[in-house]
Amino acid sequence: MTAYFTEGQSDPTVQPVPASVVERVDAADTTLQNPKRAVLSLGSNLGNRLETLQGAIDALEDTPGVRVKAVSPVYETEPWGVEPGSQPTYFNAVVVLKTTLPPSSLLERAHAIEEAFHRVRDGRW
Question: What's the number of domains the chain is made of?
């Protein structure tokens, strides 16, 4: 796995937020009653990979009952389980969410976002 951004270089997909601001936002966020934490792994290997990751994050944030709380740096990784060189490398990131959605609904929403970005599921691992 290769870090897409080198040590000390700013990752344009992550904006640092002071803890005091996070606390105020959390306290003011009354739209989520009794939220749970969820962690999702995101990846893209076609087209503009950064744009696709940002679009998926935006789509999650636009989902009622979901708030994106943190986004990891972006990493570039080799495809797994395929012939070397048969697919482009991936950009991957992890998002931490607060959500009131049940797990099955969050999974359904994640699949809908994948479909909106034209993900094709050829096989299951």
Answer: 1
